[in-house]
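quick one, 216 residues, struct below
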Amino acid sequence: MAFLNHTARTQKIARTCRKGRGFPVVRQVLVWATIATVILGVLLRAGSVRAAETPALSERQVKALFLFNFAKYVEWPAGAFSNSSAPIVIGVVGEDGLGDEFRRVTGERTVNDRKVVIKQIDGTADLKDCQILFIGSSEKGRLAEILEAVKDSAVLTVGETDRFLQQEGMINFTKKENKIRLEINLVPAQRVNLKLSSKLLTVADVVLGKPEGQKN
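---
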């Protein structure tokens, strides 16, 4: 019932704000800040909501939303982008159709004034040309090869297979009791100067490595 409780709470706060036209400006700002915090919590915990409670979201859509939010809560080194307006590119290997779901649930939203685009990658030549790389379970047989190809690049690697972290992947999707969960390995991320938000670490079931200077 977490999603429903968050929704009811948000609606109640919004109604109060609409009725209180005489509220001091500072109080109204605090109310809307609370609403924003509630919505953020729902997005970050989207993978922990049972499918029965959110019938509009499929497992693939939940993963697409997570990928978009990773773009918000990861800080890349300056050299990861060719210029200040270059897009955040999410590369997808071995998961046909995820790009369509991503565009459906995220629309044209931007992150830090950058467009977020998703790109299907068939070979290995373009693996380093993205900021986030999602590796589908169908690529389990060549997972080591793919991770090796980007291990020295500032690419956030995301997977959905057993022992993904042990092969030095950075974020892994797992499924427990019909819920999407996160596992995070900070060691390979820190090696290429990626800073992960403390909010991501908070919602992860497993965190390997020691947090240091992560993005808030």
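The chain has two domains: 2-44, 59-208.
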